[in-house]
Structure to design on (323 residues):
């Protein structure tokens, strides 16, 4: 509880931690799907796997980082060394997370996932039926979710069902929360669509979004399912109640992004950037400089000072809604 209080005060005052808590490594940008709301084709990124030896060299330099996400703008389980990567990160005592689309070619991957030591696995899933006007086919993903849940031991990895908010998509969200409860998954995470790079995305307006999130929160409470969305509520218990009350203050009333406070993204070359949606905005290279010096560098300070200007109308990780 004390740790939560200290972090909350730090965010409200925008007193940055000595180093970020979470790093995300772009392990691959190759993907077996082409989802309409994914901006990967707009980001000017290389479609390739990071070499395993380079990934290890990057991890070796992440001194003090507690959590590591092994996901780029592609499907992580396409990387031929992904399980070696997970094991290497676990040897460094890191909490390891992956986000997947769940489209696996071989059944044996389920046992590999469960046996790898992976701490958290998020499935991108936009609905429980195929034929959606957005996202990707869901039936295959639903089966993979069930298989992981049946195979895991001691609730490891934690399983999150991750979806995006679409106009008119409230029924799909509610069905997903019910499914989470039925199969025993751990959490539903909802994200606002980023229209900065794909302006034609049909997302709900502020009033519809708030209605969807309020109803999702109530349904989750009824079913015993944790439903997270930074625009409404995250975490559990007293922390969740506090978050609802002061969430706008946590990002300085729209001045800063909630994510960049204690997070970095590292592309396949080792370049450190403030966000996954800024993969080529280099602050420094982790293979050439230590984490603390990059985090406190003048380049990073300039980004923080001009964050609203640099990030434009991106509001995926902010409370405020850009129409």
């Amino acid at each position: 509880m004390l740790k939560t209080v200290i972090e909350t005060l730090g965010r409200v005052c925008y007193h940055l931690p000595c180093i970020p808590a979470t790093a995300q490594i772009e392990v691959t940008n190759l993907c077996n799907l082409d989802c309409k709301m994914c901006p990967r084709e707009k980001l000017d990124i290389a479609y390739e796997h990071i070499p395993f030896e380079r990934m290890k060299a990057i991890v070796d330099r992440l001194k003090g980082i507690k959590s590591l996400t092994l996901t780029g703008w592609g499907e992580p389980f396409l990387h031929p060394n992904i399980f070696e990567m997970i094991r290497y990160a676990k040897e460094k005592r890191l909490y390891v997370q992956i986000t997947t689309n769940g489209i696996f070619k071989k059944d044996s991957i389920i046992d590999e996932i469960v046996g790898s030591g992976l701490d958290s696995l998020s499935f991108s899933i936009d609905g429980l039926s195929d034929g959606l006007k957005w996202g990707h086919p869901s039936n295959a993903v639903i089966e993979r979710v069930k298989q992981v849940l049946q195979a895991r031991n001691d609730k490891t990895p934690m399983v999150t069902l991750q979806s995006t908010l679409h106009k008119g998509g409230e029924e799909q969200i509610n069905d997903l929360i019910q499914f989470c409860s039925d199969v025993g998954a751990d959490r539903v995470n909802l994200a606002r669509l980023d229209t900065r790079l794909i302006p034609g995305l049909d997302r709900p307006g502020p009033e519809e979004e708030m209605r969807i999130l309020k109803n999702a929160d109530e349904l989750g409470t009824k079913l015993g399912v944790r439903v997270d969305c930074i625009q409404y509520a995250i975490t559990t218990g007293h922390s969740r109640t506090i978050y609802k009350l002061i969430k706008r203050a946590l990002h300085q009333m729209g001045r800063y992004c909630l994510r960049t406070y204690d997070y970095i993204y590292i592309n396949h070359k080792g370049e450190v950037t403030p966000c996954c949606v800024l993969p080529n905005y280099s602050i420094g290279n982790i293979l050439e400089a230590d984490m603390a010096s990059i985090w406190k560098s003048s380049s990073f300070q300039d980004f923080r000072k001009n964050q609203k200007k640099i990030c434009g109308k991106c509001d995926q990780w902010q409370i405020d809604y850009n129409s």
In short: The chain has a mean pLDDT of 92. The longest strand covers residues 158-165.
